[in-house]
Amino acid sequence: MKPVIDIIDQQICQAIKTVSGEDSPAMVTVATDAKFGDYQANAAMVLAKKLKSNPRKIAEQIVEKLNISDICEKPEIAGPGFINLRLKPEYISAALLQINSDPERLGIDKEQQSKTVVVDFSGPNIAKEMHVGHLRSTIIGDCICRMLEFAGHNVIRQNHIGDWGTQFGMLVAYLNLEFRTQNSELRIQNSIHISDLEQFYKNAKAKCDADESFEKLSRQQVVKLHDGNSETLNIWKHIVDESRKNYQPIYNRLGVNLHKENERGESFYKDMLPGVVGDLKKAGLAKESDGAICIFPEGFKTKEGQPLPFIIQKSDGAYLYATTDLAALRFRINQLHANKIIYVTDARQQLHFQMLFAVAKQAGWVNENIELVHVTFGSVLGDDGRPFKTRSGENVKLQELLDEAVSRAGKIVEQKNPALDKEQKRQIANAVGIGAVKYADFSNNRTSDYVFSFDRMLAMDGNTAVYMQYAYARVKSIHRKAEEKNIDVDGEIKRAAKLNFTTAEELDLAKHIVRYGEAVEAATRDYRPNFLTQYLYELAQKFSGFYNACPVLDADAASRPTRLLLCELTAQTIKHGLNELLGIDVVEQM
User: Fold this and answer.
1) Full domain range(s) for residue 235
2) pLDDT at 399 over 80
3) Burial of 89 per CB tally in 10 Å (0-12, 13-18, 19+)
4) Is the domain of 55 the same as that of 182?
5) Which residue among 178, 311, 426, 507 has its CA within the 20 to 30 Å range from the CA of 119?
6) What does the pLDDT read at residue 394?
7) Does residue 182 register a pLDDT over 50?
């Protein structure tokens, strides 16, 4: 079922073409004030300016040729030429019945042309615990994947982990010094964990800065790692595996669909780096500058106005993140056959990706059929307006943050419903706590910073996961009460061949349910989960208004099927938006 806003837009564009011969935009938006209608088109003002004519006269001509009577009441012209449109109850009724007949997709069509989309997100650091700085890339990236998959695209998740480089030489050298026994065995398999590795790395870095002989040992271990020395590789693999033991449970806990098979870390591309540099040299794009190999993409300047270098090989022969990113980009195009590549990182990396994309296009690796997208996001801040840290100034560990969220949610569940059994309380607390953290992030504009607050995100009112989960549980409670009264909900809904709207609250809720496809389409197109959370919040509010004004189970025989269907579709929509697209669990009781 095509979103109604798209149908209206298409019909108005056709009317404009008939009236003027011009391909001019319809400029259709949801009406800001319901008393003027459901949608508003500002096409006449744009077209009148182009034709140097009176906009109201143009609006009258558009309306005269507009073929939309099966969807809308007679259009009204307001002000200088605004076209106001109000949906017919008959159309709303038919649309709801169609949505109800399609519980898997709720009447939302897949994209006509499926693409292969690679999404690069999360990217935890090896030998370090995940912290709050990894939260946004991880959950926003997963949400984008979910929305694109729902749209019908072939989505390939890529977790570009930092598992290669000089830091591993330092860490391996340190472990050799600290854990090698008298008989030269290195016993680390059962004694070194992720929390140890993080401290060991700090110790190794300090030792490297202070001790030239240790620095030499570290460089030797880097060479051994690059040469495939078996012992060095075994230590490196243990470090990577131990790190995965930390981040994989966090992914599972967050409901993020990332696994070992989605990982292609920097080590995966190591053998491709010489070819990347060599090919860019052959193409005449890469050249030596102060001993380093650089590319100077067009349009990028330093503060002094000089060409800005994109360095792909240092003077000592070492490769950089830029080189690996170029290799990854080329692999994704040539081997994964991506039509689109999306990178989900914080906004501070914007210049890097602008230059990366420019180089790839100059090299001819990217043509007009391949789209490169950098989805940026702001920072998570503390109450002081600075990046969220512990009192000691350390990054907040993501595992500890989630533990705290679930613990606080558990206290709320205990207060609200102490009669629930222990396992129910545990499940609800987990769904509410994890959901609160994710929803709080999603409900903010991703390009903005936001202040992290447990009190706000666990509030029972306002645009929070708790409010949304409670709204879902409230709807589901109607179903349970119906069973107690021996009311056959499914049977009554199935017998409703036409819906009977008798109140403004019913019609208002019905119209909003029909618009779910519009919200999903907008959120997917702009990679903005907050479009979806805002829609769901408004849905919950409209349901609350409907529920307070309209008896459901005690309604008369003519109204009850309609009201039961509105309840059912509200629950299905909330569940689909939260669970399927945002990756947030719903609960039947709270």
Assistant:
1) 166-262
2) yes
3) middle
4) no
5) 311
6) 85
7) no
